[in-house]
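// run 5 | inverse folding | seed 20
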């Protein structure tokens, strides 16, 4: 190899090394219920970029439909905070009712549907008016929240009664109640809103409903899929935009599972930190992020390489995760 060739090879190696260190095109917001902050992490490198100082015990988070606003439930401060994603500043504070945990944003971005855990109710909040316009009673300790793609149906789970409540978004009427596995946690609409998945933490199941009839069509049991794993659980769920892959945080099983909704089969799983509740997909769906409260960590999974790429120690008690484009 002549001198010029060696110089070119060295330059290419240097450029490749620099490229690997470049920040990604997305960042991850991680709510920390133990430290009263939301951590900001670079999705590719795992570098911690800062924090948002929130109210007490931040847990559930959601993006506005346009991706510009991050809503954070500060549970012990009884409020929802609206943060500017780009400038990372607090825009306003919304009334949420008592002890907000998980919540859903209406598809048109006008309403929040908030689970008030200690109040056994769901608050409908008009965002522009900053006013609770309706309160719907549910079973004790509501947590999981979801809203259909057309905005007509709100679904809430009550963990203490192991029930799922189907609510008409226009009137607030409870139009159905169904029993599910023990301590239901998360609601996911699939198949363009025709199917509703409800995870049950302690039972380790996912109950699948037909949205039109609100009848159970299948119960997917994760326990036999993980022989030898203690405390197989099912907590938060995320789906790819095409609905062909579903990822499930498995709580104290310390992993994330990928499921095929078409076959209801386990595709693969990845190890995470201890007690994984919140997960998020990068906007390009090449990475998965898992927040683990009892190990104080965020696991970054490279889905294309099929491996855990990094573990970021955050401290505190990470609870939820949301990934956004820069």
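// decoded
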């Amino acid at each position: 190899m002549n001198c010029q060739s060696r110089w070119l090879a060295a330059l290419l190696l240097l450029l490749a090394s620099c490229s690997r260190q470049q920040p990604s095109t997305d960042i991850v917001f991680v709510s920390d219920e133990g430290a009263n902050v939301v951590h900001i992490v670079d999705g590719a490198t795992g570098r911690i970029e800062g924090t948002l100082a929130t109210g007490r015990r931040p847990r559930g988070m959601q993006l506005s439909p346009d991706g510009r606003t991050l809503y954070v439930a500060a549970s012990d401060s009884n409020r929802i905070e609206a943060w500017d994603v780009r400038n990372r500043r607090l825009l306003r504070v919304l009334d949420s009712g008592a002890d907000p945990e998980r919540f859903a944003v209406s598809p048109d971005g006008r309403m929040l549907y908030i689970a008030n855990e200690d109040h056994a109710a769901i608050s409908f909040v008009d965002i522009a008016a900053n006013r609770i316009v309706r309160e719907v009673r549910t079973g004790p300790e509501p947590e999981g929240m979801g809203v259909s793609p057309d905005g007509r149906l709100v679904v809430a789970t009550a963990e203490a009664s192991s029930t799922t409540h189907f609510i008409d978004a226009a009137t607030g009427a409870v139009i159905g109640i169904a029993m599910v596995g023990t301590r239901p946690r998360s609601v996911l609409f699939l198949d363009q809103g025709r199917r509703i998945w409800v995870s049950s933490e302690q039972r380790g199941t996912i109950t699948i409903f037909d949205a039109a009839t609100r009848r159970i069509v299948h119960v997917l049991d994760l326990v036999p899929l993980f022989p030898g794993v203690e405390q197989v659980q099912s907590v938060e769920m995320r789906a790819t935009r095409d609905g062909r892959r579903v990822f499930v945080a498995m709580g104290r099983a310390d992993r994330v599972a990928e499921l095929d909704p078409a076959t209801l089969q386990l595709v693969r799983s990845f190890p995470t930190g201890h007690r994984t509740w919140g997960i998020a997909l990068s906007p390009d769906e090449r990475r998965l992020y898992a927040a683990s409260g009892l190990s104080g960590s965020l696991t970054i999974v490279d889905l294309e390489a099929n491996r855990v790429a990094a573990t970021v120690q955050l401290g505190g008690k990470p609870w939820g995760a949301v990934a956004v484009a820069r």
